[in-house]
Amino acid sequence: MSEDHDVPSSPPPVLLTEPREGVPDVVADDPGMSRVLDALSDGAGPVAIDAERASGFRYLPRAYLIQLRRQGSGTIMIDPTRFDDLHEVNRRLADTEWILHAASQDLPCLADVGMRPPQLFDTELAARLCGMERVGLAALTERLLGYSLEKHHSAADWSTRPLPQDWLKYAALDVELLIDLRDRLAEELQEQGKQDWAAEEFAALAASGPPAPRKEPWRRTSGIHRVRGARALGRVRELWMARDELARDMDKAPSKIVPDQAIADAAISDPADVGALLKIPGFQRRHGRANSARWLDALARARQARSSDLPTVSPPQDGPPATHRWASRDPIAAARLKRTRQAVSELAEQHQLPAENLIAPAAVRALTWQPPTPLSQELVAEALTASGVRDWQIKITSGALTEALADD
């Protein structure tokens, strides 16, 4: 029987409800911006940065609030919609490390306003490299700093004006502890000997450009698995494109106009008039009803399209097929994939980090589907480099992957 009273316990986390210096006013004019630039220039050390978007409400993933915190500068909040760009803010931070949490989410919208990090530290990615299971900001501040953060407004519509005071308090707290968290995670990386790995990852993030647009994005419509045949898929495509055009014009999230499931339902039933269209629940919404002619026109285009202009039933392949098809397409490659995945899993466990952070699964699939010939560790390393795998990852994985591929 265990003696729980002998086991030391950590004190409960302290709920952080107010920023140290209070909630600053949101900067929305040139005089305010002038004061911000002076404050940032007077500050020292890295800068914590966060951005709030209106995902699920607006079409464009733009920033509607940007928060910064730096020693000597305090916390700053900027309404980027009130300025042409923030290039001058970027210039004042040109030689500064930027600290972000889950940087890949915020970097595109920051770049849209002219803010690009010269160097960065991603606290979420650092936690993953350290092998931590819970890597959300609140979980990390609680575990490493002893503070808990409320996350009530993470899914709010940040395009709302004026922004409620409670939301601004939440936004200020998002950068309140980032510098302290960065320092604690840097210590952990150092203790685990992973600081060089993190440096490579952070450099790659800082240098990354915007994500490439998806090919045939309409194929990601929820419920499309219920749609059968090229003609019906053509209806999905036409409805999706009609909705996307309207959403872009209105700057509304497409799901706020007509939900995906309604598009799939219409593609299956192919309504030919308003009455039949409005029997589908998703089209009974305000924007669905008001744009019924648009949807019927889209369905008519699919109905009249030549067979040669219809989409293929299966998505065009760019790279290896879906892994569930490997056994039937190439049993030898399927066996290779099992071995390479096992090799990666063992290495990840050995180095105490998630397998997907050790090496991207897509890179493993590409290598496994078409290994280099003749097979050698050098050629495997070249193939991994071509797939964007970082040097530290190649050093750890290339030998084991070569061995796994050689067992054919």
Short note summarizing the structure:
With 408 residues, the chain is of the alpha/beta class. It has 19 helices and 8 strands.
Instruction: Find the structural class using helix and strand composition.
Output: alpha/beta
Largest sheet: 6 strands, mixed
- Which H/E pattern describes the elements? EEHEEEHEHEHHEHHHHHHHHHHHHHH
Here the CATH topology of the largest domain equals: Nucleotidyltransferase, domain 5
- Overall, the morphology is flat
Region (Disordered): 1-22, 305-326
GO biological process, one term: nucleobase-containing compound metabolic process
Protein name: Ribonuclease D
InterPro entries: 3'-5'_exonuclease_dom, Exo_C, HRDC-like_sf, HRDC_dom, HRDC_dom_sf, RNase_D-like, RNaseH-like_sf, RNaseH_sf
Task: Walk me through the structure.
One of its GO terms (molecular function) is nucleic acid binding. One of its GO terms (biological process) is nucleobase-containing compound metabolic process. The protein is of the alpha/beta class. The protein has 3 domains: 200 residues, Ribonuclease H-like superfamily/Ribonuclease H (Nucleotidyltransferase, domain 5), CATH 3.30.420.10; 93 residues, HRDC domain (DNA polymerase, domain 1); 83 residues, DNA polymerase, domain 1, CATH 1.10.150. Helix content is 49%, strand content 9%. It has 19 helices and 8 strands. The protein has a 6-stranded mixed beta sheet with strand order 2-5-4-3-6-7, sandwiched between helices. Strand 4 and strand 5 form a beta hairpin. Helix 9 runs antiparallel to helix 13 and helix 15 packs across helix 19. The longest helix has 21 residues.
